[in-house]
Records
---
Amino acid sequence: MKFKKNKLYIENVSAENIVNKFGSPTYCYSLKKLKENIKNFKKNFKRINPLICFSVKSNSNDYILKEIKLSGLGADVVSMGELLKALKNGISAKKIVFSGVGKSYEELEYAIEKKILLINCESESEIFDIEKIAKKKRKIVDIGIRLNPDIDAKTINKISTGKRENKFGLTEENFLKCIKKFKNNKNLKIKCLSVHIGSQICSYKPYAKMLSVINKVIKKSKHIFEYIDVGGGMGIKYSNNTKSLNYKKYNSLLINFLKKNKSKIIFEPGRSIIGDVACLLTKVLHIKKTKNINFIILDSAMNDFMRPALYNANHRIIPSKKNKLVNNLNHEFVGPICETTDKFGNFSKFQKINKGDIFAILDVGAYGMVLSSNYNLRAKPAEILVKGSSLKVITKRQMINKII
Ligand code: LLP
């Protein structure tokens, strides 16, 4: 994404062109950026040769998943829907891990049927269900057990997953109990210890703590884990103020860890692969000036992109065409939905804005379209993939008659 002669381009196509052709709001992905991110992720951890399982919950578009498959990545899934999507797009079952606190009996049966790499269990009750199915089918099922390492990932509270009070994984005590109990089970093979401490983590320090807890627990368990699944969570730069995660440090922590434990590392990245690959193009419907606030009313809303309303997340908003700067006016970008939280950002310095102007909300590739809904009976946006100068509709704009 860059400006050429004051106009915003996604690869070789101007944002204006895309909106004129496909309407708005529209999610717009750059294939080049996606490939770059995958390449960089692989490069960052080249020395440890990990299995990289893309977290499908962050983006489950078929075309994106096809690209994920082509680049050799596996998938981290959390539901029957995501498992079916990953398989449908050609991702090998042997590269799929299944996480989640509440897998149903049917979901477990299907995952076992498909012989996926690992089912990462999050409760003893779930392990019992797997054992029951395995017995019935006379199979030996490979499982992981998710440890709750009781670590504060120092991220947005609402997306922290590794603290004792979070519902995820098993506490150290229960984890060790389960290892003991199921270690020699005829129908189960405990192959993996998994963790995921949260999302949008921008410091290597929580990962360092996480690895030292894992080390301690492995020693106590006296069990050899073929895999250590360290989850995802790597943060991205949503603004110039966001700190970048030091991948070099994280990598060297893992290298040290592997000196003591001869396991294969599994990653489950979502945001770091797809987050900054897409923007949401949107148009100004109305401008409403009040004494203190200049409301910029967009044609996109929290149903199209939920992160600001749900987590108070800040996303940069940039114009498709540069204009003169206006100071000291409180611009508030809002959507048309009847909720006060339906807003995308506040800026005291912004360029002059006119009705009909097009803007791009940045870094919406992860947890963007997947969280969209039909709230207020609004149709869902389109998704476009840009490849050089060519454009491909990868999700058609939802027709209003489909929801009426
Ligand atoms: N593995 C597990 C078990 C997870 O729960 C998650 C995300 C991931 C991997 C991928 O994490 P990532 O690399 O994308 O950080 N909707 C929120 C984020 C929720 C994350 C849920 N779990 C947001 O928009 O910030």
Note: The two ends are 36 Å apart (CA to CA).
---
Amino acid sequence: MKFSTRAIHVGQDADPTTGATIVPIYQTSTFTQQGIGEHKGYEYSRTGNPTRTALETCLASLEEGQYGLAFASGLAATAAVLSLLRPGDHVIASEDLYGGTYRLFERVYTPQQVAFTYVDGARPEAFARAIRGDTKLVWIETPTNPLLQLADIQAIADVCKGLGILLIVDNTFATPYLQRPLKLGADIVVHSTTKYLGGHSDVVGGAVITNDTEAFQQVKFYQNAAGGIPGPFDCWLTLRGLKTLAVRMHQHNDNGQRIATFLHRHPLVDKVYYPGLPEHPQHELAARQMSGFGGMVSFQVKGGKDAVNAFVKALRLFSFAESLGGVESLACYPPAMTHGSIPKEERERRGITESLIRLSVGIEDAEDLIEDLEQALASAKHL
Ligand code: P1T
């Protein structure tokens, strides 16, 4: 089956007891057993729930992985993968990362004697150079949050191969519709399903997908042992979102490209970060590694923080809000919002300056979105 068909059907057979065509929300914490050790595959909903199984099966299929696990949030999924580490282990991560991932690394795992080295994700050789005897994981986002930098998954997988180092790809920005890291040599894919996979800004969730049986068993053990699972209704909402992922991504791609092009030509805009622009330094890699460029567009506005504030206050269609990947367009200010947990100096060194705005371009009509940006930029200009 092809992608769109799998999104609608895999893991989603008619309910065996009632014939319900759509996977029911199994809103139960527990399952009645027939005798000691006699049950129908489910005992307790932290360990497993049929609505969650449907979601996990579908997610694994979309990423072309053997195993899928769903979590209560993207960060819960991230923490579940980090449970593979022990004190004394070393992780190499790309420098541009979601601020919450950085905070988890620095504030939760560093005190537990896990060491992190950050490198330029655009340079596979930088990963090779950072490898130590105790390196266990390489962690990348591609495209990155918020600067839309690309990492060459295949080249970095080659660096890790044979060294017992697992390559983890946070595929939240691309989605499996645009990019399948496991096929390119990654060992584990992580998602914040809160974003494009859920797709409607109404549910928080995360996922881990892999073909590595040992890693799967460990992460699954952690899922049950630590318990950061999504409830049945959250699983159901995410599963419903998946059904339309392919059609939504088409419109995100089209709108993202149109808005990036509009911003690129605008006199009040200093710099646009969008992998679909020929000016993007890794445009060729993006075209090779992804089947579309997505709906995330960041840019620097002239006039600094005051201009940003005037711009976001003037927006009418775009909501000024954290998160991304929903059908509705959002604008976010990374220095104070998604990346506020990175110390200012470090943040600015990484390119997250006070002039940076990140757009999650939704699937509204592109002309309406451009009109909104046009009038909001005009407000910023009159400062
Ligand atoms: O918010 P949560 O579902 O826990 O996911 C964390 C996460 C992980 N990875 C990436 C690439 C992310 O972008 C996120 C969450 N990001 C936002 C909330 C944001 O607005 O960027």
Note: The chain has a mean pLDDT of 97.
